[in-house]
Amino acid sequence: MNRRVFLTLTSSVFAQQQKPNFLFLFADDFGWGDVGFNGRKDWSTPNLDRIAAQGTIFDRWYTAFPVCAPSRACLMTGRYGIHHTVRNNSVDIPANEVTIAETLKQQGYATALFGKWHQGARNQTHPLDQGFDETFGYLTAQHAWEHFPKKFWRGRVEEEVSGYSCDIIVKEAMRFLDQNRAKPFFLYLPFIEPHFYIEAPEENLKKYRGKFPEKDPSKPYRANYAAMIERLDAAIGRVVAHLDKLGLRESTCIVFTSDNGATFEAGNQGVSAFHDSNRPFRGQKRTLEEGASECLRSCDGPAKFPRASVRRRLYR
Ligand SMILES: [Ca+2]
């Protein structure tokens, strides 16, 4: 998807309304087959399934690049990698690129990024300089492997945090919604689940421990993966419920997707291969097969998007 498609899609849906809000829920290395609405039965994703059931599933929604930083650069700029120059994970979005946040900010939107930015080793730019009013989370990819982070960047200043990543992000998102409910907003939540490290809170893990055969039962990675997704689903449920509570659901376009498909890299500990996360597609993150780029995605804006429908094309 790119910025042009995203805005074309939503402009027709919200034709009667001047400025719709956008809640963009972005997962990391999330496989097409890892959600209930695509057939997963080993764990449940009731909140994501509800978004899908109440909105539209786009059956041919491809990420523009099968790896993290370039995919995010395509999302932010609406341009392919050959144009924005971010072709691997060590490069950041050049300062002169215009992001969707900058464009919406010019239109009077409050803009926020809570989660993972993915700052490269070269061309480092800060999301505050790319159109975001507020940022809270991870700047570098390596920091974003930490699901129990000790520190987050609030803008350009580090502060101590505690808890599980998606919970911290959603708590901040709810604070942002409380403070910006009267304005149009672009709230971008790039979560880090279920990217490695493969680790989840014990309260979710205990439900799955012993459910799957583990290479080393003292390191139940396969159970942890299920628990990570369950935890993320619950966090997404809370932020969507908060939209409802504030009366913003009808005016907000909710999008859920992933930066790329599931990975079989060593850090994943083999869990996405075991769970066949990209099923029914071949390939994985970094490859040019559909398992890398055919990302799960659904959009919801009650009474705006056709309910429980599947679009085989992006344009209507
Ligand atoms: Ca990724």
Please state the CA-atom Rg, rounded to the nearest Å: 18 Å
Q: Compounds present?
A: calcium ion
Quantity of strands, as a count: 10
Q: Can you tell me the number of structural domains? A: 1
Spatially, the strands of the biggest sheet line up as 6-5-4-3-7-1-8-9-2-10
Which regions contain 5 or more consecutive residues with pLDDT less than 50? none
**Residue share in β-strands:** 15-25%
Q: Please give the alpha-carbon distance between the first and last residues.
A: 15 Å
How would you describe this structure to a colleague?
31% of the residues lie in helices and 17% in strands. A hairpin with a 2-residue loop joins strand 5 and strand 6. With 316 residues, the protein is α/β, with parallel strands linked by helices. The longest helix is centred in the C-terminal third of the chain and has 25 residues. It has 10 helices and 10 strands. The protein has one domain: Alkaline Phosphatase, subunit A, CATH 3.40.720.10.
Layout of secondary structure:
Layout: H1 3-13, E1 21-27, H2 46-54, E2 56-58, H3 68-77, H4 81-84, H5 100-106, E3 110-119, E4 134-140, E5 151-154, E6 157-160, H6 165-180, E7 185-190, H7 202-208, H8 221-245, E8 252-258, H9 271-275, H10 290-293, E9 298-300, E10 309-311
Parallel strand pairs: 1-7, 1-8, 2-10, 3-4, 3-7
Antiparallel strand pairs: 2-9, 4-5, 5-6, 8-9
Helix pairs in contact: 6-8, 7-8
